[in-house]
Write the structure tokens for this entry.
Amino acid sequence: MSLPPIADNLARVHERIARAAARAGRSADDITLVAVTKTHPWAYVAAALAAGHRDFGENRPEEAYAKFIENPEAADQPFRLHLIGPIQSRKAKIALACRPVLIHSIDRLKIARRLDRLAGEQGIVLDALLEVNVSGEPSKHGWSPDALRAELPELLALPHLRFHGLMTIPPYDPDPEAARPYFIALRELRDALAAAFPQADWSHLSMGMSHDFEVAIEEGATMVRVGTAIFGPRT
Ligand SMILES: *Cc1c(COP(=O)(O)O)cnc(C)c1O
């Protein structure tokens, strides 16, 4: 099996991040590149680790668990695993067993309550982001801005979840500029929530994928989730 040029691709993505950050007067150090390895085998992760990369994103908890936790090759490797996809209630346990550094995709009160209870049983606190459906597309996960505002008092009171900001996935459009209004909307929502709920940490905006991460950085992303631009197309 021949691998794509993962180290070169990572270097190129880092350069693009640095240029986008510079355009926005930001430091590239404030932006975490989450390399999305869903559907790809461990060898892709190993190549990125060898290139010095540490932050990886997976969509499905079962796949993340098999690749990063159960897999003997992953033992003692210095990765940080981010869960970035929707978590079904019956997958909450396995999501926790992945020991994620951050769950980007808490998208409803029910899963928040369940993860909070399970984390409490294990005596841990989970770091997480709240996923917002800024476009209102029915196919997208996440709260509407109004629903999130209404449920935030209960969310912020969950003792074993610690929130750090917002995540979104805009409607797909091959033109990256089409995503800009949604990135702006997420940032403005974050600013409003930070003013209304100053007890929480609102420092992170997880937004931007392979085709639009530069626009997301121009609009304030602190985490970009990039798969294809690093690992090539998924089959
Ligand atoms: C797959 C995925 C990505 C990465 O998508 P690319 O277009 O391959 O960069 C980012 N975020 C989420 C939530 C994903 O599921």
Summary: The pocket of pyridoxal-5'-phosphate is lined by residues 36, 38, 59, 84-85, 169, 209-210, 225-228 (CB under 6 Å). Strands lie at 32-36, 55-58, 80-83, 102-106, 126-131, 161-167, 204-206, 223-226. The longest helix spans residues 6-23. Residues 6-227 form a domain with the TIM Barrel fold (CATH 3.20.20.10).
